[in-house]
Amino acid sequence: MSGSMTMHRVPYYSQWESADLVPEFITGARSAADDPLWQKSGAGSRAEYAFWAPRMCGMACLRMALDFWGHPLPPSLPLLREALAAGAYVRTGETTVKGLIYAPFADWVTHRWGLHAEPRPELAAEEIDAEVARGNLVLLSVHKTIRTLDPAPGGRGGHLVLAVGSGPDGVVLHNPSGLPGHSQEFHTVPWTDLDRFYAGRGVVLGATAQGAS
């Protein structure tokens, strides 16, 4: 890993509009349909919002990157509908969704905003460090229990977080379903812990289609 810390001051967005209520949403104590701020998402109904909010970690990460690089920030659901049209998500039934699908997601992001977006089906921890040091942000596929650094997660991958910093001590994450005041924003995950959660794949995002400036 590089010898110094690199940190990008990326704005944070939760995949739910009420970031302070994430503990209730993830435990089922409160339905996403009861998010008091659901209309900010641009959803057409509480039901639409409740279906997509638990699945919008990738869109939350994209919104962070867009805001960081100065692009107009669409609400979550209009952005999600664009991603569906681009093939970045595929509904496979009434209650199931396949996504985020990296290649069409990257093509859409590149053509829509002129960002560099590179699918990396194999991305070692050392490469995450190098990309962040280069000025890029990195979407990482991790297990959702990274929010508490669970000593025995149920697998690797399945949830997307955004690497916004990196250094000798670990990778710094914005987690769309992290816990407020603990693991939502600028949460340092030691490299020695990352392997338990990280699926070894992601998408590198840069400020321009030629790479980060």
Structural summary, described in words:
The protein is α+β, with helices and mostly antiparallel strands and 213 residues long. The chain has a single domain (6-206), classed as Cysteine proteinases (Cathepsin B, Chain A, Alpha-Beta Complex), CATH 3.90.70. The protein is 28% helix and 21% strand. It is built from 7 helices and 9 strands. The protein has helices at residues 22-27, 46-52, 57-68, 76-85, 102-113, 125-133, 191-194, and strands at residues 6-7, 89-91, 97-99, 116-120, 137-142, 159-167, 170-174, 187-189, 198-206. Strands 1, 4, 5, 6, 7, 8 and 9 form a 7-stranded antiparallel beta sheet that branches. The protein starts with 5 loop residues before the first strand and ends in a 7-residue tail after the last strand. The model has no long low-confidence stretch (mean pLDDT 95).
